[in-house]
Amino acid sequence: MAAQRTESEEAERAEALTEAEMKALEERYDPEVRFRPLTPPLHWLAAIALFVLSCYHFYTAGYGIPQATTHRGTHLAFTLGLIFLSFLAFGRADEPRSGILRPLGLPWFDWIFAIGGVVSALYVPWIFADLAFRVGDPLPIDVLMGTILIVVLLEATRRAMGWPLPVIALLFIAYAYFGQSMPGVFTHPGASWNNIVNHLYLTSQGIYGTALGVISTYVFHFVLFGVLATRIGLGQLFIDLASSLAGRFAGGPAKVSVLSSAMLGSISGSSIANTVTTGSLTIPAMVRIGYPRHFAAAVEAASSTGGQITPPVMGAVAFLMIEYLGVPLTTILTAALVPAFMHFFGVLVQVHLEARARGLRGLTKEELPVAWSVFKAGWLTTLPLFVLVAILLSGRTPYLAAFWGIASCLLVLVIQNLIRHDLKTAARESVRETWDGFVVGAKYSLSVTAAAALVGIVIGVVTLTGVGFKIAYMVTSVAAGWAQDLSAWWAFLPFEIMTVESLTLLFTLIMTAVVCVLMGCGIPTTANYLIMIAVAAPILSLLGVQPLVAHFFVFYYGVLADITPPVALAAYAAAGIADANAFKAGNTAFRLGMGKALVPFVFAFSPSLLIVVDGFTWSEFFLATGGAMLGIWALSAAFANWLIAPLKGYERVLLVLAAVLLVAPDWTATVIGLVLIAPPLIRQVLMGKTGVQTSS
């Protein structure tokens, strides 16, 4: 038995990616971590600046945040300077070289961008104290500095994230400037460049607005916490616990993928990082027991994208919501619980049915870690998470919770080193690992800060021109027209399927969802959420949708873009690990994530699913929750072509129709859905399991 276990462990070790391969894969699919090599002097300069930035945020989280504009400007200045040190302008990274035009190995134009970004970012909060008195009547120097910052932000975001977000920002700026030339409802008087810069640079409605404030006040701290928590072994503990709990069931590695991604996602805000971290272990195991390679990649990608909707961290969006909605973080986390469960439930049901259809085994006892042994060895790593959650639930500020969570990580790090080494070595290792964690944590925050500041430009143009309400009017008018037409088509029926008002909301939600997914194909979740909430919130509010529901709706569909072809980055990263067809993996991942696609429509029509909403009732909650779970199960069975045995064609059609009706929060629709499920279910139960499905 020992020999068998050793062989199994060695096989897994050979199949798993090395740390260098994981890093290379993450960089390939995630431009936000595609850092360039630096010469030794510049490397140390950048590392010191990154470490100082982390220390600044760690200190202010525990001992008080400075005045808003000062804090945001300081954070932005550090970020812009570091982006031009860390990201190439074009092409692939080569060995750095110094020269007359490359001081310390950095091209002269990068030095100009870096210095211009630092000076222009600090100009508002630090250089001129009387700047507030010039809002509305900026001096030429103010316009010059604002112009420099806008240009630098566009270039910094392009380097860190690619072209889509800068192009969107440029289009919005052009809209503000050329308003008189816009067609139809989009016409507006237009704004001079001075007025545009004044609004975007000197007020809190633009670059220095809420988006940058949330990143610098909350998100940075939780990114740093996630990095440190992973380094002390909390992520590996989650993976090992998931293996011990779910690995023995049919298709065990796939269920381990779902469970471990849910747990790791609770402290990680990146779908791609989550995919690479857990997928390097789970994808080879799934392939080994018989899952097709594209399906193994899809399972990991679909599971990992769920991390961004899983409390308590939820990427950055939970903290943006508390600022925009003015509600406690506990409200956001409570609202996220059931929808997050629905997503993982949907993926889990599909991998289970797929395993049954293919006759796939679970992991053997020899291949599994023992839960008690795993927890006994790694229980200390859970301390920071318990501290973080306890302080969050106590009602204190999120940044104070992050401060104590980070402090707990550092304490665990020291204890671990004291256990492993003598005192002198433990001290040296603790300092080195703290340095590395602080540097990496700050580095991972660079791109999201640039994106948030640039999105401030988009939001500023929306508030300057009022375009959000113009789009709202246009969309709701189109949706209302479609609703009237569809109602006329089924007017002959003796009963009403949906009211015109409900149809109008349905079509509006569909259009909003499509735009969210399309936007998410090119820009990260946080930026997508910020832009869409500026544009979509007025649309949905016109139709009576509660603000909390509207925010969750656009957030969920923005996250869905990570597994929606043609730009399904999480699925492509997983396909790289599985050596699978990327597009096929993306399509399958989208199918596995259908629970995430259905649930937002459920809570849009039945807000009680989010629990903490106005008008919450337990009857509506249980109807929506039960109907959604049954609907996801029926849809999963139709996709997998398996319930208890292979399904007939008409049974799959009935299950799809039943799924649509079951997720509708209406008793009549639910009863009809149950009636449609009955024939295939009864036939399957009567015939029993007649064979193993082997088709892909």
How does this structure look, described?
With 696 residues, the protein is mainly alpha-helical. It folds into 3 domains: 2-27 and 213-448, no CATH class; 29-207, no CATH class; 627-696, no CATH class. 73% of the residues lie in helices and 0% in strands. The protein has 30 helices and no strands. The protein has helices at residues 2-15, 19-29, 40-63, 68-86, 108-127, 140-161, 164-177, 193-201, 210-231, 234-246, 252-265, 271-289, 293-305, 317-325, 329-358, 371-378, 383-393, 398-420, 423-444, 446-465, 467-489, 500-520, 525-542, 547-560, 569-578, 582-592, 594-605, 618-640, 649-663, 667-687. Helix 2 packs across helix 12. The chain is globular and about 80 Å long. Part of the tripartite ATP-independent periplasmic (TRAP) transport system.
- CA radius of gyration is 26 Å
Largest sheet: none
- Could you give the distance between the termini? 34 Å
> In what range is the share of β-strand residues?
under 5%
Number of domains: 3
- What is the 3D shape? globular
Could you say which structural class the secondary elements and strand pairing correspond to? mainly alpha
Unreliable sequence segments: 1-15, 691-696
* Range of helix content: over 70%
Number of strands: 0
- Provide the residue-averaged pLDDT: 84
Total helices: the number is: 30
Order of helices and strands: HHHHHHHHHHHHHHHHHHHHHHHHHHHHHH
Transmembrane segments: 42-61, 73-90, 111-133, 139-156, 163-186, 206-229, 324-350, 370-393, 400-419, 444-464, 555-577, 597-616, 622-644, 653-678
Membrane topology: Multi-pass membrane protein
GO molecular function: transmembrane transporter activity
Keywords: Cell inner membrane, Cell membrane, Membrane, Transmembrane, Transmembrane helix, Transport
